[in-house]
Design goal:
Layout lengths: L11 H23 L6 H4 L2 H12 L5
Helix pairs in contact: 1-3
Length: 63
């Protein structure tokens, strides 16, 4: 299935998902380096992926 995208600019969903996943990765790095007692990999490893998916799901495209 092809998506009709009139410009080369990325969609709002993609931009929001990538920015939120990057911010979650930065927060993960800050928390795990500042407070190592909270550095549980079971929580922090999937966090950027889950946050990016959730934000990309809820952001609407322009109409």
């Amino acid at each position: 299935m092809l998506i009709n995208q009139p410009t080369l600019a990325p969609s709002r969903k993609l931009s929001a998902a990538m920015i939120s996943a990057s911010l979650a990765g930065v927060i993960k790095a800050v928390v795990t380096n500042t407070w190592p007692q909270f550095a549980d990999p079971m929580i922090w490893e999937p966090l950027p992926i889950i946050v990016g998916f959730a934000v990309g799901y809820f952001v609407r495209e322009r109409r």
